[in-house]
Amino acid sequence: MGAFRLAWKLLHNNRGIYGLYLIVLAITVATCYNFMAIQYNTAFVQLAEQLQSAVVASMTCGFVLLCTVVFFLWHANGFFFKQRQREIGLYMLMGISTSRIGRVLAIESMLLGGLSLLIGLPVGLLLSRLFFLLLGKAMFLEEGLPFTLSWQAIVQLVVVFGALFTVLGLKNYRAVKRSRLIGMLQAAARKQAPPRLKAGSGILGVVLIAAGYVIAMNFKQWNWDLLLASMSILILVSLGTYMFFGSCLAVILSKLMASKTFVYRSVRLVSISNVFFRLRGNYRSLAMTAILAAATVTAFSISLSFRGFAEDHVIIEAPYSLSFISDDAQIRGKAAEVLGDSRYGVIGVHENRFVPAQVEYADSGKRIDFNNEAIVTSYSEIRGTLEFLQAEEREHLLERMTLRGGEAVFILNANTMASPINVEGEEIRLNGNTYAIKESIQVPFIGNIAAWGKKNIYVLEDQEYEKLRSNGTELTLSGIQLAERNGYDGQDEQEGIKGQSEHSEYKGMNRHVEPKELDELVQRMAEIVPGGRDHLNDYAKPYIQEYYALGIFFFLGLIMSMVFALATFSTIYFKILSDALMDREQYAILKQIGMSRREVRRSVYWQVGIAFVLPVIVGILHSIFAMNMLEEIMNVEFAMQMIYGVGLFAVIMGVFYAGISRNYTKMVYEN
Asked: 18-46: per-residue pLDDT in tens?
């Protein structure tokens, strides 16, 4: 029988073992195809020309997905090879050369890859239409991105997965060539050596994890570069996790085994000893499970956070339906006439006053404001804006911004959606006076108007602002809230812009105009406002730039969280299955000497719990600090998103834990 036919027959005979593996591979192939097809979608490419972050997001997710696939394939291949060592030994005993056995296993690996492509690629093509439809919705597009069959993505997918399975086949071939008959036949009976107890390495692992957590909580206060902080945290926590499961956990389990009062209760001795003696070979899987769990929870929580942040940040970038900067009464009158001729009615007008100024930091090394240019306004102006807009939690925000003599508040500009800079406690010089920054915050004021939206805002006491205003040039931004015309006449609009500055009965937070319906009106306003678009801002603007990016991050974050979850489940499943196959003989003996099914089940729950629940708990802890870092970067609290992410993951993992424990019990007790 030829090597190819033999490989196919062996693959068919082992379909029960390879079933779940093939399903996971097919799903992975389908997901990878859609990520690869994004870069060849014409509509997405055209959009990406205007929004570079969309390309970065898709390429980053694709790279992370590929890394996850490589790890999973490598781990699963090792599991299957380990389970078939005795089978390989029998072939060697029958006189078949190691070269031929190696060729058969290599061909079998490539057949698995081919089957995964044959199954996963059609599934990916079928789901591609839904994928692009949902991506378009997440990007706030009226229609989903059009479906296109990408031959480039198909070729790229075949090349990547073909290369991966070729490498795995060569790895199996080399492993068989280097194997020995006795070693293969005795593989199942080979006892695991106990792990080395390295208390120093265990303590160092905990210290590294703690150091990563401390940096995540304080990098902003320490003025660390974001990339440096992120890479430092990733390296410290990853190394610490491996050292924790490789050394610290071994020390903890050895102490538990030495405690007679603990270990001899119920069936704990069997469970803890099984985990302890296999820790030397399993700690890498446990550490990787913890990292994958952290990635799953973090990706899901971040995707929820971006979705909520996109909706909440609209009020920062565009507080008003329409706004423009001008102190000229004639210009304001023309604007009122344009509004009077439009389909909209003015339901509220608010004026924001501010002074352009040069800001210098006492610490000359700080570069916060470009060319030291910024905007200065008063506490009363901020209070009036928040009250007009009926901003949520405005009382709390105003309390945080309450000023005393010599203090100022820093408001991050509306053009910046996230920044890790920390200026609290810093001293600045304005108009010859020195102020200490009490608070760093981001609240709506003038919005992301082109000429001024990129400048940070400094808030002073009213008296201090008056002194500054007397020596500077005060500008006025007119913020207008619009609604579909319903009983309004032109006179209402004209009076609204010329005379009224505040209407306490208006609720600026309510949006009465669809963003894309403002284009014609904005164009007409740009023709009469000095400076045109540079001095004009509208509610539609955010939806054609940053919010596409946040929608992409939201959608791709959900996809990546599902991929990470699948990798986590599969890694745990193959590890537990491997342990169950090794434990069958041991539990058969315990069953013969009187161990009941209930005691076996209790022992299994303990054993699986240590090897399953502990990595999940560590992963959730990592994700909590990762989300805390995101909060520091974006200056927003994501507590609810974190609770949703952790809660959903915990429920799913709890169900998975119960199911896999029952299967484990069935395998070692009944089979």
From this structure: 777 788 888 888 888 887 887 777 766 66
Counting every residue, how long is the chain? 671
Residue whose entry in the numeric block shows the structure tokens 């940096």: 215
β-bridge mates for residue 407, sequence order: 436
Could you tell me the CA-to-CA distances from 355 to 177, 373, 450, 514 in Å, in that order?
A: 78, 11, 16, 32
Residue 248 is given by DSSP the state I
Residue 410: the pLDDT is: 94
- Tell me what pLDDT residue 509 has: 36
Residue 2 CB neighbours (<10 A): 9
DSSP string, 86-131: HHHHHHHHTT--HHHHHHHHHHHHHHHHHHHHHHHHHHHHHHHHHH
Exposed e or buried b for every residue in 141-177, given b needs 16+ CB within 10 A?
A: beebbeebebeebbebbbebbeebbeebbebbbebbe
For β-strands 407-411 and 433-441, DSSP reports them as parallel
- Look at residue 430 and give its three-state secondary structure: strand
Minimal CA–CA distance to 293: which of 50, 633, 614?
614
Compute the 3-state secondary structure of the chain and give helix, strand, coil in percent, each to the nearest 5. 65, 10, 25
- Both structure tokens of 60: 């980053």
- How much is the pTM? 0.72
**Which parts of the chain sit beneath pLDDT 70?**
1, 16, 43-64, 136-147, 183-194, 307, 310-311, 364-366, 418, 485-517, 539-553, 670-671
